[in-house]
Predict the structure.
Amino acid sequence: MPGRMRSDCEAIPKGFTKKQADKAETMEAALPTGSGETGAGPRAASDAAPGCQVYWPAPYEVCGAIRDKYNELGGPNGFLLFPTSNELTNPDGHGKRSVFQNGPIHWSASSGAHPVVNHFFAAWQRNGWESGPLGYPTSDEMVNPDNIGRRQYFQGGTIYWRLNEAYYVTGAIRDKWGETGWEGGWLGYPTSDEIKLPDGQGRMNRFEHGVVYWSPATGAHPVTAAVLDQWSRAGYETSAYGYPTADPVTHPGGVQEQQFQHHRIYSSGLTIPVAQGVSLSLGVPSTGPLQPEAVSQGVALNGPGFKARFQRVADDGSFEVSLVRLDASAPASLDLLFGAPAGYRLRATPQRVELVDAAGVIVAGVGLPMGFDATGAAVPVRATFEGNRLRLQLGSSTALPIEFPAIATKGGAVDKWWSSGTEQRKVCALEPHDCVRVRNANGPAQDLAKKAFPDTTDTEDNRVDAARHCIWNGLMTEGSNRGFAERMAAAHETDGKSSPGWHRNGALMDEYNNKTGVQVGLRNEGSPGTIQSTCLRYGQEARIVPEPDTIDLTNPSGIDLIALRHP
């Protein structure tokens, strides 16, 4: 319409002023004719030159290869929206860029023109743009095979995005990650950019399920799961283990082995779960190869003259770790490595090593081993704890094999096991022969009681707990003798007083039920199965006695159990 500007005839898109729109129209008119209509935008300039184009109402020229890429992506109707700058020369003096409302398009002669937007833009920016390790983009953003994440290639590496986080992977670390299956493999997506390590030589990337470390001397290798927890607690590559020199190897039974510059780490595959994604693990460092072996409910690591055995003893995850001296060639000391994620600390007490959360709560523990020879006699063991390594100086005896067992369990159960509870350890130290014979009776008692009453709340005052105490004391009586069972039960109750949930009525209930268990054990000598079934029947019929001191706590007959409540 003669005498009127385009802005006088139609609405100006949001974000632009009339002044800008009129300037854009003037710029369009000033461009050389002959390029023809591109059709890329809502009103692509009809007289744009072959080299540049203006997209009304944005008063900026988009030129050359950048213009072609912009038009290919839909121009103003695409995800970039309108231009917000003319073509700019990059700091290297060679590359070019144009900025749009939702991100830039960068171009260089060797890489072509490609947009970089959103989280890819942020990751590229924090790593120095085109002058950093990534260089120029060599592809547009593309969807990964999982149809969730995305990736974009650059001259020096690749940026991967998932769940609003984007990180780059490059070089030998990227190649090793590729060997594991990229983001669809067992490492998952990257969760960090490549990080330069303190020695100035090595590099690493974190991934969802592990890390990949690289150094010029060792190459790139992933470290994951419990071995990562144990190695990280020791100090990563600055520890006595150094860098990984081989990929992890998983053996039957779940044992994971990995060679580092100075030692190997063997992880047992058994862990104590303490929170979502958090567990306490144990491993064995070794200067030479160990032979993994599957055993009942666990695994064993066999070395010269010794074995380290890890076996489940209860369904709550509790397991026994036993170091066994088989003959005189066994080393005088053996180490255990503890592993746990960041945010938790390890501390040693005279009875155990504890894993403690940020609030100071014990969430897991491993009792310090006690030693027993083939006759059941006590054998000394001296423990020192430094960092995350428990070093055990093992005593000797002519009665081989010599076993040094301990229990690893959750924080709420640490005082229930003889190897962790202070008073129970004292009983074992005075009566080692009986202790070693029945040391794990508590595990089956827990499991059987919980399975018998699956709908019952797991507390310390109902029929699950009543049946557990009965079975435990019955098995101890049958496996050793009445006196030992009574002394161990009394020590167990004394240890339990340190629990935050301890209360007097619950302790009186346990006292009564412990006596029933002893009587059941005496009546069924040689028949552990009958002990278990009898105690479970008593548990089903348990009397509700909210005030146990109102009954005869001497419990002379031992033919029933009491509970403070049923649910």
